[in-house]
Every structure is written in C-alpha cells, then in structure tokens.
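Recap from last week: sequence in, structure out.
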Amino acid sequence: MDEKLHWLWLSSLKGVGSVTMLKYLRAFNTVTELYDAGRRELEEVEGATKAEIKALSDKSLKRAEEIAEECRMREVRILPVDDPDYPTWLRTIYDPPCVLYVRGELPDLDRRIGLAVVGTRRASKYGLDCASRFGAELADAGAVVISGLAEGIDSAAISAAIKAKGTVVGVLGTGVDRAFPTWNAPLHREAAQHGALVSEYPPGTPSTRGSFPARNRIIAGLSRAVLVIEAPMKSGSLITAARALEEGRDVFAVPGRIDDPNFRGSNALLRDGAVIALEPDDVIESVNASLPAELALTSRGGPASGSAEGPESRQKASKKEVDKQNGIEYIDLKEKLGAFSDAESRVLTALNSGRKSAAELSAELEMQMQDVLAALTMLEIGGYVLSGDDSRYGPTSRGMI
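Predicted structure tokens:
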C-alpha cells in the first residue's frame, strides 16, 4: 500500500496535533509501522494518553483516500515530513507539519535563502510601500520571498517580488486551492506560477480561527530570517516573529511613528532586540554574514559578501567617487526636500547647523516634542539623520543640505 496514504491517515486524525504525531513516529520506525500498531503497542509509548490511543486506533483510510484523490485532481503535491524534498529548515522546528500540501514548484530552500516579509492586514500606504520595496529588492537579490498572502503587507511583498521576477512561497491557513480573502485569488495563482503555495491543510479546507496562527510557525520555519513591517501589538506577525526567535532565526523590523498604533508591535520588537531594517541591504548584509559565499545574496550596494569584490574591495573606492556620490545625494535631497512634511524639513534644516537632542530641537523650533520625535523617526527611517550615544541627532551624508 502507498505509504503516503498512511501519512494522510495520520495527519487527518481528529485531535492529534503535530507534536503528538511526532511523539508516536519516534516510537516506530515508519509511519506504516505506526499505522499497523495495535492498542497494546501504542500504550507502551511514553506519554501516551487514552484520547491519543483511541484516535490512533481508528484505521479507516477513507478520509486519506478522499484527500489523495482531491490532490490528484487539483495537481497538489503531497510532501510528508520524511520526504527528501521536505524543507530541512521546516523539518527541524519543534512542531513541523507531518504533511505539506504544495501547489506549484516549491523551491529548494536548502540551496536558496528564504526570507519572510509579514505585517498587518490593515496597512498604511507607508507600510505597503515598504513591503513592496523590500519584497522587490529581496527577490532581486536572489532571496525566496515568503509570506502568508493575507491582504495588506503580505500580499504587497509577494506581489512586488513576482513583478521583480523573483521566486515566492505563500503559506496558507486554508487548503492550497482556496484563496482567503476570495478577491485575492489572482495573486494566489500568480504565486503558484512563480514558486509555490503550501499548507498543512488538505484541499478544500476553509479558514478557521486557529488556522492562521498555526500557519505562522510554517512561515518562520521555512525562513532564514523574518522581516516585520507595520505590526500593531496584537498582530499575528508578532507570533511569526516569536516563533522565528524560538527557532533561532533572525528577526528584523521596519520602525514607524512612535505614536502610531499600527507600529507599536514593530517598534516593540526593535526595543526588545530585533534588528532595525531601514533598507533592504540591512537585511541582505546581515543574513549574508552567516552564509557561505555560494549562497550569499546580492545587495544593490555591490556583489554579495564573500565574493572577490566584497565589502573590502568596495571600501577602496577613491575619494573622487565618494564625493561624486555625496554630490548626487545632495542634489537629490534638495529636489526632494519639498516632499518632506513641514516638521521634517524644519528638523533636518536645524540639524544641519549642529547635532541636537529632541528636547533642544523642540525648544529651538517651538514644536511639540511628539511632533519632533515623529519627524526624527521618519528622517531616520529614510537614512537622513542618525542618533548617537549622547541622544543627539545629526545629519548623515545623505541628509546634508
């Protein structure tokens, strides 16, 4: 009998989660041996409960056969946890799905770098713009962009990565044949054509209250690092970030206004030790630091770390080249200054006369402290100002007027 039927049998048992399944799989050599095990053998497993034994004693394959037929008809691949193509990074988490359902072509995440981009469904224009920029540039650097395909940040990142001709993975809290929300179906189809849709739920499974938090562990498990963009305190993105940290992945966050509830979760991550991401290169260079040269991503600032023309070579640029670049940034800044808010323009102009603290700026410009802090946050995000150990701010080369 096809062993995959036994995997489908196991994964479809009611009341038996991933951790429980793994407990019994460790006690038997194969899933078929577990299927063949009688009640007495199951009772000998350390930690076995009556409810678990009752569930595992149901040997009906009817549901497994139905799932297998659905997968065949919908061209959905069944990927058990012991399959060589099952992603190693996901297999090693605390509670990996025993079966993945795959629509499309799942990239080899052992030889490609998967980076997750996640955030709130109710995103601002700023958040959506950030998600699009990071999604496109990470894909352009060679990363596989992974997200949940929810509306808002997730969809913006995946859509931008596809437009950049990148590879994507959408992790769903439904069956891979269902789009949630339904109007997002075209993006689901595109994602399957430019990578894969994956789920631990068989085709036809609708969304439930618990399915989306559960899928967040898969997003974290497939990824080398997780980038959070615009997340309020109760965002599911924080669940993804927490799982990533538990599994030893890096967590990055894009900062936002300190008075914006939609960024309280993101800013809290930064306060608690997440790596700040002001540019896609911040993520790329940090991830590259722990990668062998052949896997390194390519940043827009130059070749990937570890190549013959890595950071050391770039540091040898002549003063003339540096001055030329600074001149270009100066011209760009003068042209863009009118696009800044009045508060941002006033703060940046004031900092060009010397380093100042937020309190000094507030007094000098006769501005409310909260307005000064908001302007400083946006200028720092844009790379125009930088704070020092003395809590004073100064312009970067990009912010010189």
